[in-house]
What we know:
Low-confidence stretches: none
Structural class: alpha+beta
Radius of gyration: 26 Å
Distance between the termini: 16 Å
Helix content: 40-55%
Strand order of the largest sheet: 2-7-8-13-12
Order of helices and strands: HEHEEEEEEEHEEHHEEEEH
Keywords: Membrane, Transmembrane, Transmembrane helix
Number of helices: 6
Mean pLDDT: 76
Largest sheet: 5 strands, mixed, barrel
Transmembrane segments: 6-27, 239-263
Number of strands: 14
Amino acid sequence: MNVAGVFLWLGLFPGVVAALSAAIAAGSVRRSRRLRRAVPVTCRDLADMRKPPKKVIVAGRVNAGPGGLLTGPVTMRPCLWWQVDVYSTREYRDNTVTRQRTVHDLRRSGNAVELADDTGSVLLDGDVFGKVIVAAEDSDSSWGVTTQDMVEEGKRRHRLLLGRLRDADICDFVENRPLEFTVFEKRLEPERKVTVLATPVRHEQGWRLAAWRGDGAIVHDLAQLRADADKEARKNARFAVVFTKVTAVVLGIAGIAQVVQFYT
């Protein structure tokens, strides 16, 4: 391969990095814009609007909706919404070598809840708590258990937990037991104060709040969330600019080398 060809191939790598950085930066910019365009409203404001904004911020306390209370499948405690993460480790054969692999399974409830403030209430889709950013007043309620914990606490508790996980269609480790596993349950409990970023959608004679497309992050400061989104966008944009310049320089050298080679 000649010198020009080498530089041409060398220029492809920073070009790919620049394109990826630009795509990530564009996503960060869109997220930042969505956050800044979200309009704070009360439940009464939302009820009186004929055409509400596409993105709103509503604060209030959550309570049971039409479906009533749920029960956390691991803790058996009453809640409005739950999420269970299961990490299980199994052995498998790779040719003649025995290896271990950890698998993550996730299950969520989708029960609708009621979000109420001093002016009224609005129905809130349960998937909001799994898909979008929710700023919560306090930390998540959570509980985890490992196989070692269950051995120490007795076989009966172990069997009961495995049975509940199977009945809830979360995982079936009664017959197909992994080497080890860890279960984490997150719950949204009644009277929890949250600030929800959501999309109003038509519901009967009014509106209900549905999930944004988002990453499921839970934060405690919306201003910091906006600042972080802006910072991420700027950082990725800088990466894109730097690697674009590197690509231009390398491809320029490749072009010069091609010209020199042509005339010699």
